[in-house]
Amino acid sequence: MIELKNLSCSYENRTVLQNISLQIPEHISILGPNGSGKSTLAKAICQLIEYQGTIELDAKNIATYNAKQRAKKIAYIPTKLEFYDEFLSLEEFVLLGRFPHKQSFIDYDESDRNIAKCHIDMFSLSKLATHPLRSLSSGEMALGLIAQALTQESSIIIFDEPTANLDPKNAQIIAHHIKQLKQTHQTILITHDLHLAHFIDNPVLFLKEKQAHYFEKNFFNDATLSSLYDVSIQSLAVQYA
Ligand code: ADP
Ligand code: MG
Question: In 14, 103, 173, 206, which residue has its Cα 20 to 30 A from 194's Cα atom?
Fold first, then answer.
């Protein structure tokens, strides 16, 4: 369970999120215009940036967890990898998900390799296992990122715009995986994809102008969406069902 207490985030004196307090439910979708602070909130939760206020994980200040303890609890899946070793193979990349459970990078054993392989197979990536990351398509890489996060075996998974670079078919595959993962993991879904958010059907935290607006339900109606996004939205189509 994650709880935000008077959380504020700023970059160079520009405040992006101001004084947000919220007990995050088991599953949540975080929506809001570009630049409203969605990734900033995820990075604060993962201790990747500085902030004011407190974030609690299981009733304990998350800043008191060390990186490996935190990684056993939370996996963050970025939209795409900005920096990586381009010669790393997909299977080596997925295996890195075991690192929080290990003393060093040379510690991986048979059971770690089996856990990684199981998730490579789960996403039908076995034919690509030995391929270098740089040779993968956006859709294959998106699946590889999820495979690595599952290999990490954390209880909470944060998806940051998981369908942003995907064609409709891969977006649909990812949507169904996320929905299924709700049965075994706590999920935080950051997205602009209203069809995806509608399909995943989590309560919504809408970020806008430094503030957070929480919708337990009744978010996906044209009037609410049009008012929040400041553009006319009509008859949200159900794309992923
Ligand atoms: P979102 O994910 O909702 O699109 P972000 O959380 O990435 O938005 O960014 C929120 C605001 O903070 C944006 O205006 C962005 O330009 C700014 N920002 C994000 N990261 C940095 C950074 N490292 N340094 C300065 N400003 C940043
Ligand atoms: Mg973002």
Answer: 14
pLDDT beyond 80 at 235:
no
User: What is residue 87's predicted lDDT score, i.e. its pLDDT?
Assistant: 87
Is 37 near ligand 1, meaning CB less than 6 Å away?
yes
Q: Closest Cα partner for 206 from 187, 196, 192, 195? A: 192
Measure CA of the first residue to CA of the last residue in the chain; give whole Å: 29
For residues 170 and 210, the model is more confident at 210
Indicate the average pLDDT of the chain.
Answer: 93
> Which CA distances in Å does 104 have to 100, 113, 130?
9, 15, 22
Other CB atoms within 10 Å distance of the CB of residue 32 = 22
Give 103 Cα–ligand 2 centroid separation in angstroms: 32
Ligand 2 centroid from CA 85, angstroms: 23
Counting from 1 in the atom list of ligand 1, the atom nearest the Cα of 33 is 3
Q: How many CB atoms lie within 10 A of CB 189?
A: 25
- What confidence score (pLDDT) does residue 106 get? 79
Query: Ligand 1 mean position to 44 CA, how many Å?
Result: 12
pLDDT at 238 over 70: no
Nearest partner of 155 among 239, 225, 69, judged by Cα? 69
Of 228, 233, 213, 178, which Cα lies nearest the Cα of 20? 213
Instruction: Indicate if ligand 1 lies below 6 Å from the C-beta of 98.
Output: no
Domain extent listing, the chain: 2-229
Q: In terms of Cα–Cα distance, which of 3, 42, 47 is closest to 21? A: 3
What is the CATH architecture of 2-229?
3-Layer(aba) Sandwich (3.40)
